[in-house]
Amino acid sequence: DSLLGGDYISEDFTSTGNVTGNFLYGNRMLGNVRMRQVRVAGEACPKLYQNLEETPTCYPAWSVISEETAYTKEWDPDFDTSSEYFTWKSVTETDELLAFFGQFGTYPGSGYVVDFPDDQENATAILTSLQENKWTDVKTRAVFLDFAFYNPNLDLFMAVRIVNEFLPSGVVELFGTFRAMKLDRYPLDSFSNYLVVGCEGITLALVFFYFFEEVIQIYKEGVRSYFSDFWNFMDIMNLVLFMAVAYLRLNTHFRVEEMFGNPDNITAPKLQNIAFWFDQEKALIGVNAILMYVKVMKYLTATKKFSRVTRTIARGFGDLVAFFILFFIAILGFAFGGLLIMGTDQEEYYKLELGIATLIRASFGDFDYDATREAHRVLGPVFFFMWLVFAGVILLNMAIAIISEAFLAVMNEDAENEGEKTMFDAINQFALVKRVKNLIEDREAVEELENAIDDIDADNDAMVDEGELKEFLDNNKDAKKVFGVSSANELMSKFDSDGSGQLDEEELQELKSYLKQKKEEYDEKIEEEKSAAPSARGGIPGDDTD
Questions:
Q1: Given pLDDT bands bounded at 50, 70 and 90, which one contains residue 25?
Q2: Could you tell me how far CA 325 lies from the centroid of its own chain?
Q3: Which end of the chain is more exposed for a tag (fewer CB within 10 A), N or C?
C-alpha cells in the first residue's frame, strides 16, 4: 500500500484519463507487481548447540543445494501450505532468468511467487494475508520485488527489481536494480531510422566478411602461428564480440515483437529478462569499444615517437609478466592477512576479493588509515605500513625500472640504426621510389631523342626545315615535353639563331647539346634522390640506375 497507493493519480489530475496503472508524468505500469522469495531447508546444528537444545534445527547461508522446494515450517507442523503463494515454482514456470547475482549470493529464478492483481484493494488484502501467515521467516534468504514502467514521452521502459537479502546472521540487506531501455529500436517511421538500420546492416555484413577473412588466414597460417601475433587475437576478439552483440540485438528484438503482439504477455519477469540481456549487450559493446581503442596502438608505429611506446611495452613484456606474477603473490598474501586480522572489524577486508581491491587502491594512495588502526590497534598500523612500503616503494618502483630499462634499450636502438621502420617511413620510401622511377623514365626519353636526332635530316641536305622538325616531334611523343615546346614552329624559333627558317649544322649541334645537358640534369637529380635513400632506411628497392 505504501509502495503504490500514494502514486496513483485520479482522473482529475491526469491528461490521459482514467487509465489503469497510470502514474505521475505519464509513467504507466506494465504488467503486475511480482514478489518472489527463495528459501533454505533446515539442517542439523553444530554439535555445541545440540548440547543446548533437544531437537535443534539451523538454517544455513544461501546455496543452491540448500534450496527448499517444499514450503515448511518445522516449528508449526499444522501450517496450511495449500495456497498457491506457498507453492514452489521452477524457472520455466516463473519466466525468470536462470540466476540473479546478489551482493551475498547467486539466486535462481525459481521460488515462491506472488503476482499482485491490478487493483489496489485486492493487492493490499493479499499482502496483509501474507504478513499474517508469516510468508517470510527465518528460512527466507532473498525476496525480490519486480515491477516495470513505460514512459511514452521518452519512449523508455524501466524494469525495476528491489532485492532484500536475508543473511543467516539476521541482517537484511536491500539494494535495487533499475534498467532503462528502449525496446522499439527499429520503428522505421522516418528516414533517420531507415538510415540506422541500413548502417547496422552494412556493419554486420562487413563483420562477417572480415571474420571469414580471418578464418581463411587462420587456415593458411595455422592456429598457433596466427595467434602468436597479439594483434590477430585482438582482431578476432573484436569480430566475435560484434557478432555476439548482433545476436543479442536480434534475439531481444524478436522477443519484444512477440511479447507486444499480445498485451497479456507483458509481465514484469519477462521485461526483467529482456532488460538483463539489454544490459549484457551494452556491456559487450563497452568491452568492444575498449578493444577497438586498444587496437589504435597497432597504428602508433606511424611515427617514430609513438612507435617507441609500443616497442617499449613489447621489449619489457616478459619482465612485466614476471613482475605482475610477483605482485599478485604479494597482494594475495596481504589480502589473506587482512582478512584474518581485520576481516571481522573492517568491511574492506571481510572478503578476499574486497581485500585485494582495497590493497590495490592503497597502492595508489586511496586508503583509510583510521579505519585500519581501529580494526586492530597493534597489527593494523603494522599491516598498513608494511604494505605501503612493499607495494609503493619496492614493487611499483620495480615496475618503473623495468619500463625505464626497456625504453632506454629502444632509444639506444634508435640511435644505432635509426630504429624500427614506421608507417611514415614506408610512405616516404614509396614516394622516393616513385620519384626516382619518374626521373629514370624522363632520362630514358632524353636518350631516345638523342638517338633519333641523327635521323632528323630526312633529305640529307645538311639543313633541317620546319617540316622535318614537325615529323620529328610527331614520331617522338616525349619530344615536346623535353624541349618545352608545343609545335615545330616554336622549336624552330628556339634554336634558329640566324632566323633563316632552317637549322644548319651549328644550330643542330646546339639542339643536341641541349639534350645532353638535360640528360646530365636528370643524372644529377637521380643521384640526389639516391643519396637521400638511406634516411628512409631501406634505400631504393630494385635500383638499377647505375
A1: low
A2: 25
A3: C
Give the integer Cα–Cα distance in Å for 236 and 487. 62
Other CB atoms within a 10 A radius of the CB of residue 99 amount to: 13
Following CA atoms 59, 60, 65, 69 in sequence, which dihedral angle do they give, to the nearest 10 degrees?
30
Q: Are 349 and 358 in contact (CB under 8 A)?
A: yes
439 vs 378, residue with greater confidence: 378
Parallel, antiparallel or unpaired: strands 111-115 and 140-151: unpaired
| Predicted pLDDT at 129 | 92
Rounded-to-integer distance, Cα 546 and Cα 535, Å: 20
Alpha-carbon gap, residue 33 to 83, rounded angstroms: 18
Q: What is the identity of the amino acid at 18? A: N
State how far the Cα of 424 lies from the Cα of 125, in Å rounded to an integer. 76
pTM score above 0.90: no
Between the two ends of the chain, the Cα-to-Cα distance in Å is: 97
Question: Would you state the cell numbers that stand for residue 431, as one nine-digit string?
Answer: 614516394
The residues facing 178 across adjacent strands are 160
Q: In whole angstroms, what is the distance from residue 318 CA to residue 210 CA?
A: 31
Q: How far apart are CA 160 and CA 143, in angstroms?
A: 14
CA distance linking residue 283 with residue 413, whole number of Å: 41
The whole-angstrom separation of Cα 269 and Cα 218 is 43
DSSP code string of 483-501: HT-SSHHHHHHHH-TT-SS
> How far is it, in rounded angstroms, from Cα 12 to Cα 368?
54
User: Using CA atoms, how far apart are residues 509 and 449, in angstroms rounded to an integer?
Assistant: 13
Q: Would you give the distance in Å from CA 493 to the centre of its chain?
A: 71
SS3 226: helix
pLDDT of residue 21: 53
Q: What pLDDT shows up at residue 162?
A: 94
- Average per-residue pLDDT for the chain: 83
Do residues 526 and 543 lie in contact, with contact meaning Cβ atoms separated by under 8 Å?
no
Q: Are 247 and 284 in contact (CB under 8 A)?
A: no
Non-local (6+) Cβ contacts of 146 within 8 A are 33, 34, 35, 36, 159, 160, 161, 162, 268, 269, 272
In this structure, what C-alpha cell is assigned to residue 479?
619530344
When pLDDT is cut at 50, 70 and 90, the band that residue 4 belongs to is very low
Give the chain's largest Cα–Cα span: 140
Cα–Cα distance measured from residue 34 to residue 146, given in angstroms and rounded to the nearest whole number: 5
Which tens digit of pLDDT belongs to each residue from 276-322? Answer: 999 999 999 999 999 988 888 777 766 677 778 878 888 888 888 89
For residue 197, the Cα-to-chain-centroid distance in whole angstroms is: 21
Q: Write out the H or E segment, with its range, that includes residue 375.
A: helix 369-375
Closest CA to 140 of 109, 158, 165, 175: 165
Distance between CA atoms of 356 and 335, rounded to whole angstroms? 6
**CA dist., res. 209 & res. 216, Å (int):** 11
Phi then psi for 30, rounded to 5 degrees? -110, 130
